[in-house]
Design a protein that fits this description.
It contains 18 helices and 3 strands. The chain has 462 residues and is an all-alpha fold. A hairpin with a 2-residue loop joins strand 1 and strand 2.
Length: 462
């Protein structure tokens, strides 16, 4: 099956690839979309929600987990169907535009999340779910454009460069928020010592809430080059005919999947380890906020450092992908993540690996505590491994999938990345709620990466 998949890649490639500007413009999709994951789901808005909107950090982590699970379930159910329709219709950009609009609308609505207002929580979580659905589906169809942009032996580098560029976009957006928009309620100054731009009020956390509208505007501006300069697949069929044929092809693909053993095992492995990775990124900042009492400035600075590590990791992972193959890059990344999570669970505010250390004093310098610095180092390892894991995963999918059904398989890829993606946040939320312990909730992630590694070992890479 691996040989057949490899042949599929090489038999239907275009004779001429688009010019460099088209490829760079495609890469900028990752730059355009990354602030949603950096600012909202990881480092700024999610910790703000748990610390200041929800009644307490534990219930906030649980509520955020349930909303993430609901969005993941919707994505899981629709991804393969929409991917099959896109393959039958040919075009990708209309789908990216439609779901990109959901990302923009949902993100902008998150401005309503005022602190200490429990009545706003349902509407706020709904906006978050809408934006999550838009971000994930737009990414599915953007990924499906990759095989027509560069030759097969450069796919790994393209994927890694895209992830690295996205991380740089995340870094820039974090610096913009921390340096010029979000101020400490105690000092009313930003990380750079400035008064917040636009008169944003630190007391009502407008600097945290502005990350929603900023994410929407950022996406609109930086996704434009892809729409203007990157060629789309040619249109094949009208929408109604594409719907009918897409569903027929999806049924055929699902029937063939048991015979494509490597593909089937890889999709199952991706389902498990992606669930763990998404949960880790979604709750890493929340966990730090609860464990160390970090607020926006500390978590955002932590995010910048992690994003720098992620940029280097994704860039290096892309080069290793083309040289060693995506399977080895995925396995190595998971090992790093597994060891880092296990170590993080043994770090507390006043202890490292069961050894007592001095807790930071109020008003002390940023990351002055030994436990905080240990968490920072482990976070950098996670950031450096997370990018290559995701970039190499989409490369391995391209190597294993028939090229004429690439969007459909990316739909299945998104399905397996989301069909159980509600389980990780749900388990974290449920265990945290039952035990009232963030550490107990995070411990479940070890199981996901161990299982993913065991399944990946059975995949035969082309």
């Amino acid at each position: 099956m691996a040989v057949m998949a490899s042949e599929a890649i090489h038999t239907d490639i275009p004779q001429k690839y688009p010019r460099r500007a088209a490829v760079i413009s495609w890469i900028f999709f990752d730059w355009a979309a990354q602030p949603y994951f950096t600012l909202i789901t990881t480092f700024i808005f999610a910790p703000y929600f748990t610390s200041f909107v929800a009644p307490d950090p534990a219930s906030g982590q649980a509520l955020w987990g349930f909303a993430t699970a609901a969005a993941g379930l919707a994505i899981a159910l629709l991804s393969p169907v929409l991917g099959a329709i896109a393959d039958a219709s040919g075009r990708r950009k209309p789908w990216i535009a439609g779901f990109g609009a959901l990302l923009v609308i949902g993100s902008c609505l998150m401005w309503i999340g005022k602190p200490g207002d429990p009545g706003i929580i349902p509407a706020l979580l709904l906006a978050y779910s809408i934006a999550s659905v838009g971000a994930e589906f737009a990414t599915v169809f953007n990924n499906a454009m990759m095989p027509t942009l560069v030759p097969p032996n450069q796919i790994g580098r393209l994927s890694g460069t895209g992830w690295a560029t996205g991380y740089v976009g995340g870094i820039i957006s974090l610096i913009l928020v921390l340096g010029f928009l979000a101020a400490s309620p105690e000092t009313a100054r930003t990380l750079f010592g400035f008064v917040p731009l636009f008169g944003l009020d630190p007391v009502t956390h407008q600097g945290d809430r502005i990350t929603g509208p900023l994410t929407g505007v950022w996406f609109i501006i930086f996704v434009l080059p892809m729409f203007l300069l990157t060629p789309d697949y040619p249109a094949k069929r009208p929408a109604r005919e594409a719907l009918r044929e897409g569903l027929i092809e999806l049924k055929q693909t699902l029937g063939e999947l048991p015979q494509r053993k490597s593909m089937a095992i890889f999709l199952l492995a991706n389902m498990i380890y992606t669930d763990g990775l998404v949960s880790l990124f979604a709750f890493g900042g929340i966990y730090a906020a609860g464990t160390f009492g970090w607020h926006t400035i500390q978590i955002g600075t932590f995010g910048i450092i992690l994003a720098i590590a992620g940029t280097l990791g994704a860039w290096l992972g892309g080069k290793l992908d083309d040289k060693l193959g995506p399977k080895r890059v995925i396995a190595g990344s998971m090992l790093i993540l597994l060891l880092s999570i296990a170590a993080i669970l043994l770090v507390d505010k006043d202890s490292i690996l069961f050894v007592k250390v001095a807790a930071p004093q109020p008003g002390s310098a940023l990351f002055s505590g030994a436990a905080e610095r240990a968490y920072l180092v482990l976070g950098c390892l996670i950031g450096a491994a997370g990018g290559p894991l995701q970039a190499a995963s989409r490369t391995l999918l391209i190597r294993l999938a028939p090229k004429d059904r690439i969007a459909q398989y990316f739909g299945l890829f998104a399905l397996t990345g989301k069909v159980t993606s509600f389980i990780g946040p749900l388990l974290i939320g449920a265990i945290t709620a039952v035990t009232a312990s963030q550490k107990a909730g995070m411990a479940v992630l070890v199981v996901f990466f161990v299982s993913g590694l065991a399944l990946l070992a059975r995949v035969r890479e082309a």
